[in-house]
Each structure stands twice: as structure tokens, then as C-alpha cells.
Amino acid sequence: MEINPLDDALPPRYAIESDDEDEYNPLTAQQADQVPIVNIKIEGQFATGYPLVIASGPAGDFWASGADLGEQQGAIFVNNIQVGLLFKPSSTRAVVLVSEATAVLPLWSMNKYVNDILDRFQPSGISILDVYSIQSYISSESLPVHEAPVRYLSLQNISLNPFQKFSPPNILQSTSAAFMSAMNTRALSYSHKINAIILLLPSPEIPRTTPSKLSTSRLSRPSGDQAWYVEMMVEVNEKLFGMVGAERSGTWALKSTPAGSAFSLSKKKQDLAELGEGSMYI
């Protein structure tokens, strides 16, 4: 390049040289955004065609502590990381999956995880237990935390008193939502009706963020004001199995008490008067 000695300033750098490492390469960004390979491994011997009860995340971990599921019969691995624990309780004909109690799935793995499970078990119906955030839930009725109801979503037009519907414009962005979406797609090709329902426990916490990478991370079990009272869990447990025609004998009874709370099935509501009727502090 020729330089005019009479110019007041030096020419811009790009007019003198071009460094490849300083230039934006769109191909590099595309390579970084490639979806990772997802390998699903389902271990255990299970028959197909039975109802599938799925308990997910913190709600699933808490529920499982009082659900008397028996010995673990199988497991589900995603890229060699255990994400699901499989049970076949003798008290019901349903298969139970405790999902994401030890690891949270990234968005890029949810679809494969969900569809491989549904392909393997071919359930006659599914019921799911998860949470919704009270803080982010949009409603015309403002309720205190201890009065927040259990909410539900269903493929069928049902009423599930005393629970309330999970209504628009609120949305779910979790593996539970992926299960419902996949079941809705499959229901369109079935000649008979198939039920899928999500029961959502109220949570005072903000929604957890979806990780970009899959890794083992033991979830902390709710306690104190973040736990759910026994009466609620007993009713949720009954609906969880009953809605898919898999009623079970026995009831829900918390065996291990989280620190900072004192759960007991024999606890009367009047005993909680000091903390407030129906309070989540028990």
C-alpha cells in the first residue's frame, strides 16, 4: 500500500493488514452451538402398557421419601449420568419414575429423554408431580404463600377439586412439559383416549434455571417454609395414582423428617395454630 506523506494521520489498520484471528467467523459460532449427542440407557425389567407415575425434581425427591416405593428396580442414564430411578411398588400396578432428583436435564437432552422413556414403557397413561413458582405465577387472585393451591394441567377436560388449573399466560419450561407435549402428540394417533396430567406443588422459590451442561448435582430437599404439609401430600399422592387408574393401597407418610420441620400424619391442624392454619410451617 502506498502512503501519502502529506496525510495528517496514519491510514486505518484494516487498510494496512488483515489478521484472520480478529475477524468474525460465522462458522465458528455454528460449531460452538451444535447440539451434543444424547445417549439414553434404561436399565431394569419392566412390562409395557402400564400407567407411569413420574415424580420430578425437588417435589419428586420429597414425595418419594414418604411414598413407600420399595427397592429400586431400575435406572435411566443420560450420557452415563443417572437421571431417573425406577420402582415397581407392590401396592400399585403403576411403574414409578423419580426423575431429576440427582441431576437436572439441559434443554438439548429433554426431547430424547422423554421420547425414549415413552417408547420403552408405552404407558397407558402418565401422571407427573412437579412444582410451580408462586412468585412468578400470574393470577388475578393474590394469595399468601401458605394458601397457594396445588395446580394441574391435563390433556383431558377435567375438574380436580380442590386443586386449581394451571392457566395461561403461565407456562412450564421443564422436562414435565416435554412429557406432556410428547403425550399430546402421541394421543393424536391413538384410537382410544389416553390421559396425561401434571400436578404442581406450590413453591416459594423462583424457578430454577436450566443448565447448559449435564452433571450430577444432588438437589436439596425442601424444609421449613419450603416444605409441603402432610395433608396436601396425602391428597396429591392419592390423585397421582388415581388419575391414571392405578390406585394404590396405603397412604403417604413422611419417614425422614427434614431439618427444621416436624411432619407427622397424626398431627392435627389445631396443633398448628401457633404457626397459622394450613401453614406450610409444620
DSSP summary, beta strand count: 9
Total count of helical runs of at least 4 residues: 6
Distance between the termini: 80 Å
Q: State the helicity in percent bands.
A: 10-25%
Strand residues, percent: 15-25%
**Inertia-based shape:** globular
Uncertain segments: 257-282
Cα-atom radius of gyration: 25 Å
Order of helices and strands: HHEEHEEEHEEEHEH
Structural class: alpha/beta
Describe the structure.
With 282 residues, the protein is of the alpha/beta class. Helices cover 21% and strands 18% of the residues. The chain contains six helices and nine strands. It has helices at residues 13-16, 26-32, 57-64, 107-121, 175-187, 230-242, and strands spanning 40-43, 52-56, 72-78, 81-87, 95-99, 125-133, 151-154, 164-165, 195-203. Strands 1-3-4-5-2-6-9-7-8 form a nine-stranded mixed sheet, with helices on both faces. A hairpin with a 2-residue loop joins strand 3 and strand 4. Helix 4 (107-121) packs across helix 5. The chain is globular. Mean pLDDT is 81; it is low at 257-282.
